[in-house]
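Q: Two folds, back to back.
A: First:
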Amino acid sequence: MHRCLPGARVRALIVLCLLSAPLSGGTLSRKGAESFALAFFRRDTTLQSMFDGNTLAMSRRLGISYEGVQYKQLISYDVDDSTRASVNEGKLGYTVSLDTLAGGFARVLIDVAGGAQRREFYFRGKKCISPLEYFTRGWHVRESRHFRFVLSDPGLFNVYCVNTLETFLEQAAGRLGLSANDLHALARGKIDYYLCGSEEEVRSLTGFQVRGMYSLAYDAIVSTYGAHEHELTHLLVNYRLRRLPLYTHPFLQEGLAVALGGRGGLDGAVLAELAGFLYVSQSVETGSLLERAGFAQTDPSISYPAAGLYNRFLLGRLGTEAYLKLYRKHSGSAGSSAVARIDPGELPDSTGWVSYIAETTHRQAIGFDSAPPGARCVFSDGVSSVAGDGEKYYFRVLDHMLLPGSAHSSGYRSRLFRQLYPAEPYRGEEYLVRADSGEVSVYNLLTNSLIAHYAAGFAIPPAIVPRRGDGYGFSVRAGAFDGPLVPSSGGTWELIRSSDSDRYFHGLSFPDSLHGWAVGDSGTIIRTSDGGESWMQLQAGTSQNITCVSFTDSMHGLVGAAGNAIGRTTDGGFSWKWWQLPGGPRSVCTAIALLDAREGWSCDNMNGISHTGDGGNTWEPQPGPGSAFGIQFLSPREGWAIGARKVAFHTVNGGESWTSVFLDTLRCGRVFTLISTAVCAYDSCVWVGTTSAASNNSPARALVFASRDRGRTWHCQWYPGTGSFYAIRFVDTREGWAAANNGLLHTTDGGRLWTMHTPMSHLIMVGICFVDRTHGWGLTFGGDIYRFRPR
């Protein structure tokens, strides 16, 4: 029942509501601007309340704080302590002006001492907000796992840079000792990345007209570069330390950022080569850079690469924790002795440093060797050409050539290409190679950066670029490129499921182009019936970690779990029946191979291989491997398995007996381990992936052992920089895919030449499925799922 209130009581309630309403509504008044300025100088208790709540949350979201800094949101927008003291003592005057802006915004200008120092603040209503919020109104927003991208012009943005940043973040996180929980927290809070169209836009957002910078106040990257890894390093080291002084000695601060992330537009490897020349030619020496004043007085084109190379050495020599301890030790207030000078006695002796310089000067990306007989032509534009042998690319360039590369960025416009060739059309090429008698430059046009460089004036001994026919001839190490110069397949991998779960995934199965299952820790099973467009969680009936999965059609499937448990479904995964195979709690079912609705095999890390002939209702152990980590059957009779002691096993009678192949006797020149499920067979061919056991002094070089005659003869395959093969799948005897530690590799000749199709070394791809040449999926350890998209 509703009652009507007398008019007087209604008016009283309205007045009471108005009096009790928050004062944040409306627009900022002149008096409000003056109150803000007064609080700004006096630092009284009202200042914090004058900031918008979302702005404060934005500043605090990653948990980074600075000693002695009460108002983090004022970093870079504040005045120094002496100026503030002079104002409060009446020795310096200031003026306040208020500009009313459209949309309920306002700008407050505070001028100290006749404009000698000017500070701008922006308000929404009566609350102060960050310039980042004000100037990016109407900008476009995109998100990835760890980043929130705010874009001035979407045409300057591409997914390639997103993948580059994600890759770099996880690599740098490993170098800096960030934990999995740290990365999960970053995924929740997001790193704000503002991609600007010009340095003027950077100035509007930060107050500094530079190509890019890290905003300490709001833990954001503001840059004209799509992948500004240098500034991201600054953020990550502060995130690792969480609470630290505001200033750090630049030799360490900038040196670390160069060591891990290069410098805007210049790849770290390019700067390392330059630094090697500077040290060898005695154009710079470390001692002069250990004084902050000496570092500041040295041209940044010298001080930054020199510090970067030494910090690479220092991080490797000391290890992460000792390095960060030194970094923290030389952080402090602006005028502190810790920031002013590093004592040479705190650094390692010079013997190791001299050897490190020598190694650097011998690892040049660009050389002048000719293509060997086995190199094949991978691209020609009719004037220039390039051939490859898996380790290097061999160029003959008239003056410049454009290379498609492995990325596809529809609608993207390269700012660097427009600067270099304003009259030429840009068609989405990834690489630009330029050459003349004195210089070779290799650019990545998607990141707008120089990734490899040779200059005769910076070489010891100097040498001109040789002529070969009508062009200049030289080689570039394959590792300088993020992927193959021309993708072997006309397709790309797209992220279709992003996971923020703390659970790890281990297996993937697609029996056809629509139905798929992925499994992981704590009984996790997810299912798709539309090719990966959508996924649903299934109830597995167990809390054990599920390690492998195999479906033969849309209804029949098996999964294996810790404790050597096997689960069976006949309704697509909506219900499960479980069996316990022999083995204790340390026994784990490592792989499942279900050939049809009845025939299947499982293997575990303790007991070996078991067989079922009734779809998983009963299991019988088979003779052969004592423990196994991977298995695949081509028919009810023929199959392959991987054993624990560098042994591959082959059967032609359904597993009643197995023939052993001792892979470590094949003498491929590398030490390796064999503890993965990377085994794949197709017709008479078989491939077995390994993990490198190389030391710190020997580069990672994992191997694929391949046979084309059912294991009678074998040969070795590899790709530069690969330390582990996690999964291998072939769609026929020639075309195949491999998930490696540095990305997804592709081959069209049975593995004789592997090329990097999709770099993604920040991820561990634990599963690859192809049902035909155009339908493929990949699963990462973190639960992300990728789908192959043919062009």
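A: Second:
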Amino acid sequence: MSVSGQSLGVRSLRILLFLVAALPVQGQSNRSYVGAQACVKCHAGVQHQWAESLHHKILQPATEQSVRGDFALGKISLHDSTYLLQHRNGNYYITESDLTGKPWEHRVEYALGEKRVQHYLTTLPDGRIVVLPATWDILRKTWVHSADIENPEEGTGVQVWNKACYSCHVSGGQKNFDLEHDRYHTTWQDLGVNCERCHGPGSEHVNAAASAQKLSAESRADIKEKIKDTIVNPARLDPLRSSMICAECHSFRDVYADGFRAGANYSDFFLPVMQYRLPAQDSAYWPDGRPRWISNEAFGLWQSQCFLKGGATCVTCHSPAHDIDIARNPQLRPNNNALCLKCHMAIASNVVGHTHHAANSSGSSCVECHMPAVVVSLRAEMRDHSISVPIPENTIRHEVPNACNLCHRDKDANWALQRMNSWYGDKSRQKLIRRADAFTAAVNGDGSAVPALLQILSDVSEEPLIRANAAGYLGSFPNDPAAYDAVLQSFSDPEPLVRVTAAQAIRPRAAQRAAVAPRLASLLRDPVRTVQVSAAIALVAMGVQQLPGEDGEWFENAKKLYRDRAGLNSDDAQQQFAAGKFLYLSGDMKDAAAAFRATLKLDDSIPAQYYLARALSGQGDLAAAQQILKAIPPDDAQYASAQRLLSELEASEHADEKLQKNGSNSDADARFRNGETLYQDANYGGALKDLDDALRLAPQADWAAKAQMYRAICLEKLSRFDEAEAAMRELSAKPGAQQDLDLPLAYVELLYDSGRSEEALKRIDGVIAAVPKAQAAYFWRAKVLLQLHRTDEAAKAAEESVRLLPNAPAAHNLLIRIYQMQGRAAEAAQQAEWVREYERRMQSR
């Protein structure tokens, strides 16, 4: 196909990226994997080339041919620890004391890496395959500690290879973690990236080729194309599907489903780790949205105009594809512009006129200017695959490196800006400047980012990852009507990644939930699985546990997809903790309890005890719940909540004893207790039904007043405002109504949501007068005053809220917004830093 034909064929990718149906690759559903050796008979030449490639050698058995490290040194010191290195009888050994505090000799079983650094792996008795700390720097020929390798995808501490890394370092890998016995039984078909990782399961192809050998030469020629159709050839796929094969590993992503095959839809199996969800200082991306970390080349390519307009894929440049060693490929050398000029023929006719540098200088190298080495790699820097232009403005404003100053290190970015403007003007750089400014402002909670974010989201020429990040950032401004509406409208965006992000980012208030729920329910039918799962998560977070009719079936299917995803991470404590919360909010107390128990077994430092107790009490196992709650120490973050729940459970037990002695309407009591549990779990629809039944059966019961209060709040949460207000007015007139803050605060929220700010302020001031240290009351007072545009008073109320609620992110975020409105940038930044530090603490628990 000609270059112009390719451009026409992928022009629509700007609005279709990731938009592919969630169906198996045609004809592949019954195919199986056969392993690399099955390919040798017919493809010996290609197989030999692949066998010498970095893909094959990414993970090798530790032999005298594969091990690059200097074990002859015998003893090395790294990070104040001593490591003994030995090579005897053809095997390699590293002795360390980090794992147990005592010297432990490990036989090195595998060598990981062949180009920049080489890690050494050993298997522990529990099946964990771990990265030993002593790592060989191939480029510098020295030993370094594995913790010093700048690989952002690895955590600190012991790196367990078969927890997350295995999926890209072997082919046909299965983690096989046994939670009950806390052991791994990891298996794989081939070490490294084998033929079928890029070409799909080969059984049908092998069988077809074998059958063809029995035919005459003429007959074989007739079916040659049919045999080709039994295997995936990346070069014959459209640019998007072709690059998705490489993106399986060359992208910073979360795994949502197992079983990705070459030619399948990336978005059915993976979801990018989005920039808007990462702390700025730890970001995998530069402020302008370009990848900053290693193994993220696909996200760079998908942003590039070479892909969006020209249809370039990974194998457009990395050819021959069976040997991806850049150092051995002359067409990828910086002084060789042939690949680029093949498409950019107008520039080819006058390179110096375009570059303003001498023809043979680095300044006239396409890749030096458009693919600078700014990606953090393994003790090295890799080239930026977004193939953009130098942006000195982003260096000045956001410290993003630019190609000009990487060469001209004696000059500053202002000098580069003057040269760029004099040669090219400034139009070509505006998109990346807009991105960096908008994303940076959004990270800092600055509402001035909203107009630019709206512009990015609505610009269909922007890459989907960038538009999705804009939607995500807009979600952090739920009180801005334009931002909220834009996120809601993105539910119907043609890009699945934007729809996923919108579902995750929407933050409806109580009055908006009734309108949002059906929109989310429609996403449960989306053809892309990650969209379905994200919609289910959003619905559950809103307190929805069930949906009627076919929506309910789709909802249950999406929940199952989430459960399957959690099963892939059965060895990850944080993932199990998140799964437990999802299942708990879904109303599945049994599986929620199991997930919380798994969390604590994997990492008992995670504060899951309280949640486990809630799940057990939801199952009716009050004794077990109480036992757990009593064991939660005072320094635990959930201690106060645990004590409240413990009091409720003890009160419930006393009520049961009283009922047994005095007799009562047991059905009404049971319905009230169930309604109370559902109310506490934010399942307001289910709670309302049980509370109504309980009050109908026993309107004069001891718990009737509490049931009426719960009922009124449920009505408000379900946006049934007229009924809620009538109930709240009646209850507010009763003595002692202000003492239980849930009711008056719910009344304030109702008035706030309906725009009756003056009445809301009167109510909240009444609460504070009755309970001067009511923590949440000051938070609501600040919100109401802000709605009344009384910013200075709102600031004082928000400051008091933060003083009384020092560990509440919502209070700090409200104060940030008010400070920004007042122009108090330094104080806003200080609060923003607290929020970021809080998020880091939560992520590390």
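Q: And?
A: The first strand starts at residue 59 and ends at 61.
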